[in-house]
């Protein structure tokens, strides 16, 4: 028996975001199946956790090599330390830019002794922001549990993608 490949019309559509858009490869830092990263953050342990979180349990389509002489950086990790606008209540932020995208973690909230200065919170924020770099947007926490919820208190508590996040990854990246 010969069967046809499913048409793209029957393929699963990318997940819907809170703002009505959908997860998108076009709004990601991925270039050639990888996110080459550069620089460091005071929270490199959280960065390492985030990269591992998005490469375990079958999440193997996108690689995270360090930038070197053979590639261009797709993502720059760095820190900011302010609670003033526009950073008021912002724990971390991924921003797509011309050239190298930016992922910043905010020491004003994630630093030692701060409200979210514990390892679990740092890992969760880093993994969430790296999810944005993969093209994922905020998901409505009343619809399903997701690392991509807009507020830390709605995110999965262990800083790893949920089963639904993994399905969304496979829908977007294969």
Description:
The protein is an alpha/beta fold. It has one domain (37-173): 3-Layer(aba) Sandwich (Collagenase (Catalytic Domain)). 23% of the residues lie in helices and 10% in strands. It has a 4-stranded mixed beta sheet with strand order 1-2-4-3. Helix 1 (44-53) links the parallel strand 1 (37-38) and strand 2 (75-80). The longest helix is centred in the C-terminal third of the chain and has 15 residues, at 119-133. The model is unreliable at 1-9 (pLDDT under 50).
Overall residue-averaged pLDDT value: 93
| Helix/strand structural class | alpha/beta
| Order of secondary-structure elements | EHEEEHHH
Q: In the CATH hierarchy, what is the superfamily?
A: Collagenase (Catalytic Domain)
Number of helices: 4
Largest sheet: 4 strands, mixed
Task: Trace the largest sheet across and list its strands.
Answer: 1-2-4-3
Q: Report the top-level CATH class.
A: Alpha Beta
Count of extended strands: 4
As residue ranges, the low-confidence spans are 1-9
Write the layout of secondary structure elements.
Layout: E1 37-38, H1 44-53, E2 75-80, E3 92-95, E4 101-106, H2 107-110, H3 119-133, H4 163-173
Parallel strand pairs: 1-2, 2-4
Antiparallel strand pairs: 3-4
Helix pairs in contact: 1-3
């Amino acid at each position: 028996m010969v069967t046809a490949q499913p048409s793209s019309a029957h393929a699963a559509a990318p997940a819907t975001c809170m703002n009505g858009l959908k997860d998108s490869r076009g709004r990601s830092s991925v270039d050639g199946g990888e996110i080459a990263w550069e620089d460091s953050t005071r929270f490199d342990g959280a960065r390492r956790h985030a990269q591992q979180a998005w490469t375990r349990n079958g999440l193997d389509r996108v690689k995270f090599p360090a930038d070197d002489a053979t590639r261009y950086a797709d993502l720059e990790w760095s820190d900011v330390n302010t609670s003033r606008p526009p950073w008021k209540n912002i724990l971390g932020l991924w921003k797509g830019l011309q050239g190298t995208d930016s992922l910043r973690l905010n020491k004003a909230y994630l630093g030692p002794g701060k409200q979210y200065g514990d390892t679990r919170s740092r890992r969760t924020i880093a993994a969430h922001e790296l999810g944005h770099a993969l093209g994922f947007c905020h998901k409505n926490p009343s619809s399903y549990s997701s690392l991509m919820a807009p507020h830390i208190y709605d995110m999965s508590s262990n800083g790893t993608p949920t089963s639904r996040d993994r399905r969304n990854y496979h829908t977007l990246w294969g």
